[in-house]
Amino acid sequence: MKILLALLEVFKNPAFYGSVLAVTPPLLFAALGCSVAQKADMTNMGMEGIMLISSFCGTLAAGYIGGPNPWLGLLVGVIVGALLGYLVAFFNLKMKVDIILVGIAMNLLGGGATAFFLPLVTPNHDRTSTNSIQSGILPLIKLPFLEKFPTLNAILNNQNVLTWISYIMIFVMAFLLYKTKLGLRIRAVGENSNAAESVGISSSKVKTIALVLSGILGGLGGTFMSAAYLSYFSNGITAGRGFIGLAACSMGEANPIPTALTSILFGFFYALSNYARTTGISDNIMKMWPYIATLIGVVIYSINKTNKEKKRRAQLSEK
Amino acid sequence: MNKTNKKGLFANMSVQNKHSLLRMAVAIAIGLALATVLIFMTAELPGVALKYFFTAPLQDWSYFSFWIQKAVPIIFTGTAVCIMFSANQFNLGLEGAFLLGGFFGGALVNIYVAPGNPALGIPLGCLVGGVVGALITFIPAILERLFNASVMVTSLMMNYICLWLSTFLLFSVFKDPKTSKSTYSWASANKEIMVTKFNLDNGKLTIFYSLIIALIVVVIAWFFLYRSKTGFKLRQVGENKNFAKYVGLSVGSLAIIAQLIGGFIAGLGGACEIMSLYTNYRWVELTGFGWDGVTMAVFAKNNPRNVPLAALFIAYLRAGAYVMSIKCGIQVDMTKIVEAVIILFLLAEKFLSKTYRKMIIAEAEKERAERAAAAAKLEG
User: Fold this and answer.
1) pTM (2 decimals)?
2) Chain B closest CA to A65's CA: distance in Å?
3) Percent with pLDDT over 90 in chain B
């Protein structure tokens, strides 16, 4: 009972919803990145590794070139993400390595390379995080007119610029996938690459583009971790967010808007685990919730899909 | 993974094997060359660092023991992944199975069920660890069977659920109030049974009896996959699910069996790991051995028979890197880079494909020449 009241208190607090919005972006970027690749029938298992490496490179660029320069860090993070996306495409499409195993290798590389190079490139030979370089954080967006509405103010004001970009990206990706020629091609290749080839679309080219886009979104997500969520890079900073993105993408059937809603749901549980201490629930139990929610979500989604399929078949057979 | 050309299987067998060996050798050579370059780039005394990296486990009995210690858990998880991948089940939940197998089987059984009774505690711990592990991989498996939920996604989630569940249980229920983050200790007699230590002139030699358990598991797994009816069916499901369905195999049950066995082996591995290394439980993060299992399966081409060799190879690199990190301050994570690169080149079908073509042509020409010679003989 006490715990329920404490939870209610958290839910009443507008700052909680602000924190939901602030912890969701890396999940959202990862999920959108996985979904654009998934639409082209490429499971980007390596999202976690891509995020780690681009976060690392972004932080270094931001710290070393022109003092704390987080915008440059963002640019470098995105470029590195795109290159890694291309690398995944290269090994899968040109060298014919199974896409899942390329992803696993990418994750190994991500964890290994960042931890290996970290002490070599930081002035104090840091072993766990880039404490000895100042990489700064991206600016917060101040909305002075919101100050009259305390609730909205607590939720929306002073969010990071990359947070806003992440939510805008939902609509950008939806537009890209459903209203542009490229999007049509990506979906066509994903649905049936032979049919797409037969009308003159190069499936490997389209798949490569989809993976590069996925890498760019991973780069944004990685940079968010080290230039907005925290102000430094540390080993394993993404902490499984790439995998959560993969799960959100799977639940949202790789469609941007359902995928984004699922990511926000995970963000909700992430934020809740940060508030665990105030409720008296063990924070370890709270940390479990996003994953349990995903598990349940995937099951519910799959049941729905199976039922729909059954109905459709029943209708077809009636005809 | 290795797509064999059914038609020319017999004629090309030797060439194919030769080529796959060549590709493996080249991939490993690239990985080791990369390691050498990385060491040269980063070490103050590259010669010394290289010597530690490549020879340390053979120089000193304690490093040698460390090598074996690193190999045992990945033999377990590698074998587990081989069985699941042979049936084409991408269940990635072994991290969780290994962790909880260690927690329930290795630790809790010895603390609460059979305290001070290693004769009961060790076998029961192995059994409980295995059962818990099987349960962990069973959940994603049954969810796929019942609801068609993606095994890959649900098993990834299971890993984190297991991690936070065990951390919660450790800190909130089973923690020894006298310590900051570990359970009550169990009798050190258990550990004395699992390992034997010898003080030799050249360091301490530790003999891990869990290695014997691991090798027995490998033999049973190989026998199961390649010499039993169920194993044959499993491999059919892995090679061609539709074909397996049409010849009347129950694909769903076979997939679940593969994952149950995989989880059991991983959980057993976790229990053995805990019982041979510690006298209390203190894991608060995922061990990484589950992912290593995937690496092992790739190296071993999904055949348990090859797992011990693959595990010894990777463990050798890790032990060397560990010694190098202590002596020369180079991060152990270097081996992960090397592993990733070897995996990519090992699996790349197009890598050295031109050499493969040349080898086939050479073989065919040799054969033709032999036939022509034989024909000439007949005519003559």
Assistant:
1) 0.90
2) 22
3) 65
